[in-house]
Structures are given as structure tokens and as C-alpha cells.
Amino acid sequence: MAWEQRVRRISWIVFLLMWVPLAGVVWSAITESEEPPILAIAAIFLSVILFAVFQVGSFGIGWLEKEKTRKKGIPAKASVLSVSDTGTMVNNQPLLRIGLEVQPPYDSRFTATVEYIVPYSFLPQVQPGNTLQVFYLEDTKDVAIADL
């Protein structure tokens, strides 16, 4: 889950830095310079492409991290503490931030927050107070929901 968040942050940094060459293009238009700012325009296109690649790539990285946790993780039960909408929709399905209290079989309880694209048919299962089957990694406390 950590790499997914890092890649998403990098994409937003690229998005913010995109405004620097855009300001250069606007400035050259305002001052009516004779040469077009080809380097600034190329930087804008590169920034847009990198932003899109990092945003889409973050979902792939997140999926790989969740699969690793499912394969190598320890099964446990978790109670849903909270559910909040991130504002992101993927294929008309919401990306939700789910707060969990994980109850490992031979360890003390801990809380974790995961983000999942939840189909509308699964929304009744992901409500505060419900219990879900999860997998967790003992060393990093990464959690993956088993059924989603």
C-alpha cells in the first residue's frame, strides 16, 4: 500500500510542476515573443503523459501489493470501523477508504486503513460494525480484504 501512495503523490507533484512551463507559454503569448516556446510546450506534454502514467500505474501497483498480501498474509477477521468516499470513481464504482480493526489469531489487535474499489453489490458488506475476512503481513501490518 505504501508504493501505491508514493506513486500517486509523485503523479500529483508532476501535475503541480506542469504549471511552471505552462506559465512560460502564457508569458510568451502575453509578451508576443517571436519564437514559440517549444521546450515549454514539450515539457507540458511530457508532464501530462507522466501524470497519466503514474495515476494509472498507481492502481496497478496497489493491485500487486494487495495480491502479495493475500498470498503471503496471515488470515484474520477485521471489524469495519469507518467507511469514507475518496471522491474517485473507477468504472462507475467508488474508491472507498475503509478503516478496519484487525483481530489476528495470535497477536494483539491493530487498526489499519485500506482503499478499495468497491462494487455497489458489495456495499452492504462494507458497513461499520460488519466483520470481514482479511489477510495481513505480520512485519508491515499491511492488510488486504479477502473477498474484494
Number of helices: 3
Secondary structure: helix percent: 40-55%
Domain unit count: 2
List how many beta strands DSSP finds: 5
Beta-strand content bin: 25-35%
N-to-C SSE string, H for helix and E for strand: HHHEEEEE
Largest sheet: 5 strands, antiparallel
Shape: elongated
Q: Which strand order spans the largest sheet, edge to edge or round the barrel? A: 3-2-1-4-5
Q: In words, what does this structure look like?
A:
The chain is of the alpha+beta class and 148 residues long. It has 2 domains: 2-68; 73-145. Helix content is 43%, strand content 30%. It contains 3 helices and 5 strands. The chain has helices at 2-17, 19-30, 38-72; strands at residues 74-90, 93-103, 110-117, 131-136, 143-145. Strands 3-2-1-4-5 form a 5-stranded antiparallel beta sheet, covered by helices on one side. Strand 4 and strand 5 (143-145) form a beta hairpin. The longest helix is centred in the middle third of the chain and has 35 residues, at 38-72. The chain starts with a helix and ends with a strand. The model has no long low-confidence stretch (mean pLDDT 91).
Features:
single chain; 148 residues; alpha+beta; 2 domains; five-stranded antiparallel sheet; 3 helices; 5 strands; 30% strand
Question: Strands, helices and their partners?
Answer:
Elements: H1 2-17, H2 19-30, H3 38-72, E1 74-90, E2 93-103, E3 110-117, E4 131-136, E5 143-145
Antiparallel strand pairs: 1-2, 1-4, 2-3, 4-5
Helix pairs in contact: 1-3, 2-3
In short:
43% of the residues lie in helices and 30% in strands. It is of the alpha+beta class and 148 residues long.
